[in-house]
Structure prediction request, 811 residues.
Amino acid sequence: MIHDRDLVIVGAGPAGMAAAIAAHESGVKDILLLERDQYLGGILNQCIHTGFGIEYFKEILTGPEYADRFINQIRKIPEIEVSLKSFVVHLTKDKILTFIKPGIIEEVRAKAIIMATGCREKTREMIHIGGTRPAGIFSAGLAQKLINIEGLLPGKKVIVVGSGDIGLIMARRFVLEGAQVEAVVEIQSQTQGLLRNVVQCIEDFDIPIYFKHKISRIYGKDRVEKVGIVRVDDDFNEISGSGTEIECDTVLISAGLIPENELIEMAGVEIDKKRNTPASDELNKTSIPGLFVCGNSFKVYDIVDSVSRDSAKAGRLAAEYLKALK
Amino acid sequence: MDAYDIVVIGGGVVGVSIARELSRYKLRIALLEKEEELAFGVSKANSGIIHPGTQNPPHSLKGGLCVLGNRLTKKVCKMLGVEFKEVGELIVAFSEQEIERLISLKKEAEMLGVPRLEIVNSEWLRANEPNLSKDAVAALFAPTAGVVSPYRLVYALSENAVQNGVEIHTQTLVQDIVPLAAHGSNGKGRFEISTSKGIFKTEYLVNAAGLFADEIAKMAGIDDFKIRPRKGQEFLLDKKREHLTNHVIFPLPSKTSKGILIIKTSDGNPMIGPTAQDIDDKNDLSTSEDGLKEVFASAQKMIPSINRNDIIAYFAGLRPTAGDDFIIRHEEKVPGFVNVAGIQSPGLSSAAAIAIFVSELLKKNGLSMERKLIFHRSEPKHTHLFTLPLKRIKKLIKGDASYGDIVCRCEMVSAKEVRDAIKRGARTLDGIKFRTRAQAGRCHGSFCTTRLMKILGEETKKAATAITKRGPGSEIVKQDRNDTR
Prediction:
């Protein structure tokens, strides 16, 4: 049996939650919010550092606190039905969406859909680091989840590849947990993260940061043993003779994010292949009317406050679209 | 302790195929593997192609075994519920001169008995392989080529072998072999094998130790061949590119390899590779930028639309070469000792035939082989959600709710599949990956690793700090901060 819904929102991180609340405020009365994890809030839950909410709430909050502001609002809105542990497996251009959760598989025909599916992290493979494939290579986000959610310390001598915000924040996190961060290695000539993170996470903790360097090779049979690091020129080519090696047991990859848009690609939305985002000139819109994308899956944002702001617009766009249908 | 009738050293596709074949008979069989799980050596890096038998010298041992193996592997897969996709292969020519070579390849392959070969022209190629370079002028089409998942084949074979009485000992490193024949065989076995897990005695000993077959042979007193690793780097593409090609695509072979291929895999992701580089270190599984460049350039020559951003994973494997052909023989100098060495490509394709060949070799050399009344055919087939239509998934979830509990989002693997894999023998995160594909997709385990660690810990009663990627030494985390003792 196929269920009809006005608005289905996929993903209940900051983007999906802001979109749901805004859509409701704009008059949408039937909203299904699907989240594949067992709680609302998405990646914010593992971001236990502060710095969230300065623009949106004019307050300094941690990730979970920031998420709670939205979660508490959603709980008070009966018209938003939340379905956790719900994993969308199929999406068509006619906005028919299939999701599964423990014990249940359900098909929904939505009048409008907002995708708020976030990003995945670039892997070691995507930035082509040669060498072996031992244990001890983590995306920065996985390391963050292991430490902050599971209470497990991935390693004790750490190299961070890339100076994006997650990498910088995780460098500090490892130091706070008593691990040694040997270096942050950045191929560009300046940091890719926010200035405040450079100061608060790297400079305050005396962590060495190498610009215009890259990891040339990972060594180690079962566990990471060391990495080769080398200087690069302006075209990112290795400068021969500049190589050195650093002993470590862990390599964190923090080399950028890739929007997760495989479902809308399945539905036939035009994709900007370079960015893996919807090919669109207008914020939150896609080539399929009534199918919106917001938050980090529309474009990669620096701070969550802007995600909340722009995703609320997606909620309002969906409400307008639904009104026009009637 | 009584002696075994047969001990097989090596838990790759060759050793496991031999052990399973021998389990048809009333024999006491043990298989020894040094790694924590089977297929963790040469087999895990196999590209999964079941070759038809082309590109082998006529009259070679490996050529004949490959042609027979191709037929047998299909049967074995059917019996064991392993998916075999008969996709066919094309060896592509880019000039008139190369067409001449296609004709001679065809002739050689036909001498070996490869069936249904055909030379197809450029029109055929445009119609059947639209992404192939427009410069391709003709191809040798071998419709009997297929693809399987190499590890799932090994696991299915081993489960079937265990069902039929084979004992499998993992983490059992052979340290020494003492032939006792000089003292006369008095039912206590002709060989005493010292291992990291104690002593095994056996009448017959089969050496299928892959890269280390020369070292095992030396322990038994045979020192006339050397295993030379030939490294192959492979690059796996996103599943979104599943339909990049309809066949496995080969260039014309070189002296040492079949060249850089566009490989269809049984799970859908296309793969490009492998390189072929002779090296010395049997543990060197590193990949390099040069390898990527070489593979990418060759692949792009055949399929111009391949994009570097499509690459989601890469790895290297080592082919255990010992000269040009396989070495499969009973050693007269050491009665009861059979070497199965130098099983490089087409080893996976030939394994089923090698198993029968070895079983006949043993019989010829005095092993008494009486068939069991009952040979168990197979375990129930494994379920993989990603291969099923939604209707079937619906039914599965109705029967067991945990099929609806998705653990790996990129490859759609449920908690139920993960638990089943562990029940069937997975002990490491790699073991789970090879069996289920969890962590094998585009995010590379970033999202599912913590959940997989928990499930593996629950099922095997292991602490988080004891969970490994592929055995001792490859623990995922260094410390449990919840543990404040």
